[in-house]
Amino acid sequence: MPLTLARPGQQMCIRKITGKDETQKFLCNLGFVAGETVTVVSEISGNVIIHVKDTRVALSRQLAQRIMV
């Protein structure tokens, strides 16, 4: 399922990243790689705030849909 369907506070494991190569590389550089544990912190006006590798990252809903958990 895409990360956008996860409830806030729920820890999920990334299964794969979909999309174009540029999108995958961008998300990988932010720390979103297969096997990594992420937590959805909140969702604010279409943006999703995600805790990954001791950092909080805000992603657009479109980018968050590329992350399969």
What are the key terms here?
FeoA-like; FeoA_core_dom; Transcriptional_repressor_C; iron; single chain; globular; Ferrous iron transport protein A; 2 helices
Characterization of the model:
The chain has 69 residues and is an alpha+beta fold. Helices cover 19% and strands 39% of the residues. It has 2 helices and 6 strands; from the N terminus they run E-E-H-E-E-E-H-E. It has a 4-stranded antiparallel sheet. It has a two-stranded antiparallel ribbon with strand order 2-6. The longest helix has 9 residues, at 21-29.
Low-confidence segments:
none
Helix fraction by DSSP (H/I, runs of at least 4): 10-25%
Strand order of the largest sheet: 1-3-4-5
Tell me the radius of gyration. Answer: 10 Å
How would a crystallographer describe the biggest sheet? 4 strands, antiparallel
The number of helical elements comes to 2
Measured by DSSP, the beta-strand proportion falls in 35-45%
Query: What overall form do the CA principal axes indicate?
Result: globular
Distance between the termini: 6 Å
Number of strand elements: 6
| Secondary structure category | alpha+beta
- The secondary-structure element order is EEHEEEHE
Q: Quick check: average pLDDT? A: 93
Write the layout of secondary structure elements.
Layout: E1 11-13, E2 16-17, H1 21-29, E3 37-44, E4 47-52, E5 55-60, H2 61-64, E6 67-68
Antiparallel strand pairs: 1-3, 2-6, 3-4, 4-5
